[in-house]
Amino acid sequence: MNTEKEQILTKVREILVDLFELDPAEIVPEARLYEDLDIDSIDAVDLLVDLKKTTSVEVSPAQFKQVRTIQDVVDVFAELSAKA
Known about the structure:
mainly alpha, 4 helices
């Protein structure tokens, strides 16, 4: 994983721990948001809003709808920040 993706993963982990009091050890790239981390669609929107604030990357709901795992979140934000 490149440095930018590692930074995004770290930020995702921090937000999930802060917002949802998840165990940081559970927040691994292959963790599924809904099944493994018990994050619902409202929680996912909160995550999206917080990530947008910290990364200044705009993600549309349609783009985020495709996200299933922590790695998907990292990939979407890394791809969009590379275009910014």
